[in-house]
Fold this protein.
Amino acid sequence: MTIIDILNKFASAGTGLVKFLEHLKQEAPDLSPLIDDQLMKLATAVSTENLVALATALPAELAQIVKGKTDGRSHPGDAA
Amino acid sequence: MRFVLLLLLLLLPAVAGADVVSAFYGGANGIWYDDQAEPADFEAGGSGSLSLQPHISLVGSGWYGFSHSYFRAAAGVRVTATDVDDSNFSVGIGIQYHASTEPTIRPEEWCPDASIGWKPWPTDQPKLIVIAQGAYGLTSNQAQAMAGLRYLWGGSK
C-alpha cells in the first residue's frame, strides 16, 4: 500500500494531490525537481517495516502517556 | 463525548510533561467533497498539535470557509505512520471530531483521516509546510479532501 493508496481511501485525495502537483509542475517548471522528489515520496509504500514498528510501538507509547511520560517529535503531518 | 473526556483525563498528566512538542500554525486550504473537480470552498485559519510520544499526537484546528461563510473546528488524535525522526515529511492516520456553525455544509461528526505534511524547502523556508488530508464522515458518509499551506507561528522545540 502506498501513501497515495491511503489518501485515496478518502475522496480520492491522493490522486487529487498528484494531479495538483503535476499541474504545479507545468505552471512552474523551476519547481520540477522538487515536485518530482515529492511525487516519488508519495509513490513510496508506507513500508511494512514502518507499519510493524507502529503496531509494536503504540501500546507501549500509550502506556507511557498514561504514566505521564512524554517524548514528543516534530511531525509536519500534524500541521494538517 | 465520554470517549473524549476519558482521553483528556488520560492525557492530562502527559500534557504537563516536559517533553511535549507543541506547534501552532496559520494557514489556508482548498477543500473538496466526494470527488468534485473544483474546490467547494477556500478556508483560512490555524491549527495546532501536541506530540506526546514519537507516534502519537493530539491535533486541533479552526477554519473559516469564505464561499459558504462558516466556522468549523476539529480536534482529535493522530498517529504518525512514517519515520518519526523525519521532520520534513510525514504521513499521519487519525480521527477527529468536526464541529461547525453550519452543520448542513460541514456536518458535526467523527471523521477518520489520513494526512501528509511536507516541507518543500526545509533549509530556506523551514516554517512553510504543504499539507494534504483526506477524511471520511462516519455519520454523513461524506468524503472530503483538503490541500493547503501552513506557516509555523510558534511552539516548543
